[in-house]
């Protein structure tokens, strides 16, 4: 998908998932039984369920097709953002604007990317890619403000990150991701021991794809034409 409207992005997401209602019901059933923090929670201790596994598999499949050089750190970063957004990266709206302006000023060429990549099961969180956003002459201040407001609109859900990560061993066994179960276990055991920290994209990913985006609640940018 190239530079398109928000409706195009939503259609793209629905083509990946095709089951948003089922997943929303799944999350409502889980919410009353999940811990509020990641303390003493391990990714491998949670069950993998059909609709949830399907969403994670298709989300990662779409990203791996576009970014075949993804490493486990990049897989984890995607899942981390889908559950927690990117509130760690901004302290206030003014800071969000200055950082965005500085990044855009040094923006280099990169791969063909959609304007919007929806990344969460409820369809609310998305990566808005800067190159197509700037090319379409969209308002940087509006994007920065949406980025700053996103943690209020879509509060981080650390409990859900564990559920995301729990799918990866089975996906590895099914060749749904280009990593072995052993590689997945080694990486995510280390991540769990660190209480699921924020990580950077891997160096191979940064070198190959020059990622430049903001994770936002897409409702704050509607209508994005």
Care to describe what's here?
There is one protein chain. With 225 residues, the chain is mostly helical. It has one domain (6-220). Helices cover 54% and strands 6% of the residues. It has eleven helices and three strands; from the N terminus they run αααααββααααααβ. The chain has helices at 6-17, 20-31, 50-66, 72-84, 93-105, 130-135, 140-153, 158-166, 168-173, 181-193, 203-209; strands spanning 116-118, 125-129, 213-217. It has a three-stranded antiparallel β-sheet. α4 runs antiparallel to α8 (158-166) and α5 crosses α7. The chain is globular, with a radius of gyration of 17 Å. The two termini are 14 Å apart. 32% of the residues are buried.
Order of helices and strands: HHHHHEEHHHHHHE
Which stretches of 5+ consecutive residues score pLDDT under 50? 12-38
Number of domains: 1
Radius of gyration using CA atoms only: 17 Å
Mean pLDDT: 83
- Number of E strands: 3
Helix proportion: 40-55%
C-alpha end-to-end distance: 14 Å
Strand order in the sheet with the most strands: 1-2-3
Choose one word for the global shape. globular
Which structural class fits the helix and strand makeup?
mainly alpha
Number of helices: 11
Strand content: 5-15%
What is the makeup of the main sheet? 3 strands, antiparallel
């Amino acid at each position: 998908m190239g530079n398109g409207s928000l409706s195009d992005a939503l259609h793209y997401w629905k083509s990946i998932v095709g089951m948003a209602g089922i997943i929303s019901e799944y999350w409502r059933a889980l919410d009353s039984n999940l811990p509020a923090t990641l303390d003493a929670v391990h990714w491998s201790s949670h069950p993998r369920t059909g609709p949830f596994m399907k969403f994670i598999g298709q989300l990662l499949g779409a990203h791996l097709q576009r970014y075949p050089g993804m490493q486990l750190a990049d897989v984890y970063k995607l899942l981390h953002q889908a559950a927690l957004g990117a509130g760690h990266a901004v302290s206030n709206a003014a800071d969000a604007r200055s950082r965005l302006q500085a990044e855009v000023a040094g923006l280099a060429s990169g791969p063909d990317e959609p304007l919007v990549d929806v990344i969460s099961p409820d369809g609310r969180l998305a990566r808005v890619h800067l190159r197509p956003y700037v090319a379409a002459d969209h308002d940087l201040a509006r994007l920065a403000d949406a980025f700053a407001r996103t943690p209020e609109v879509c509060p981080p859900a650390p409990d859900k990150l564990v559920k995301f990560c729990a799918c990866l061993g089975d996906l590895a066994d099914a060749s749904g991701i280009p990593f072995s179960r052993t590689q997945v276990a080694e990486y995510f055991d280390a991540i769990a021991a660190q209480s699921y920290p924020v990580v950077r994209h891997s160096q191979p990913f940064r070198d190959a794809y020059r990622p430049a985006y903001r994770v936002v609640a897409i409702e704050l940018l509607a209508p994005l034409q």
